[in-house]
Amino acid sequence: MTVQQAERAKAYWKENLRLLITLLVVWFAVSFGAGILFAEPLNSIKLGGFKLGFWFAQQGSIYVFVILIFVYVAKMRKLDRKYDVNED
Amino acid sequence: MDIKTLTFIIVGLSFALYIGVAIWARAASTKEFYVAGGHVHPIANGMATAADWMSAASFISMAGLISFMGYDGGVYLMGWTGGYVLLALCLAPYLRKFGKFTVPDFIGDRYYSQGARTWLSWRTVSSTRSMRQPSGICARRAAISTASSTARMRNGLGTRTAFGPRTIR
Q1: What is the crossing angle of helices B42-53 and B71-86, to 10°?
Q2: Quick one: closest CA in A to B86, which residue?
Q3: Is residue B40 within 8 Å of B159, Cβ to Cβ?
Q4: Residue-wise pLDDT tens digits, B58-97
Q5: Does B77 reach chain A within 8 Å, measured CB to CB?
Q6: Is the pTM of this model over 0.95?
Q7: Quick check: B81 and A65 CB within 8 A?
């Protein structure tokens, strides 16, 4: 691996990690955060008849999880293209 | 014909079917066995993963857990699904890049440890069994569903390219 390649690989990994951390923060915030830690205060807000904290624990977090996976796939595809490490 | 004979016949027939499919679609290589040679369309693959998420065993034990434990059981669903995010973000891409098909294989090679591989393989088997049996009635269902996913895997329908075969949960 040449010096330039090594630098590119490093930059790729750095961007990869940043994306990973961002998504995992969201992942934690909606599940453990909104669903458990802040469930009580959120429960004072009603959303379509349901308490918001309860909604996050039972449905909201799961929707966000699915969206997160799609976001990750799209972002990673873009990143792979940018650094020319894509498979297709 | 009494119910016992009927049960034996039906279970026997379904096992015969799975074993038949397994023999018919015998895999020649490791790659063929785990990822059907990589010829499964991503959509079909995603559907297989989804089917795994809502397989009969999880469906029954989830419903049981929630009705038995109420709110606390419902949160279990969150972890159940949230695990897929961890899997997709932290494990699957690297597993794929590494060219290994199961998590025990990956860990064993990555950390040069046969011990870690053995321990993880054992954990895989025991956690898959213990997590799916709290409701009791689903024990036989779980066995059948595992047999069917093995058959699916061999058949190349239920291959788990991105997610190792039942290794995580």
Answers
A1: 150
A2: A24
A3: yes
A4: 778 888 888 888 877 777 788 878 888 988 888 888 877 8
A5: yes
A6: no
A7: yes
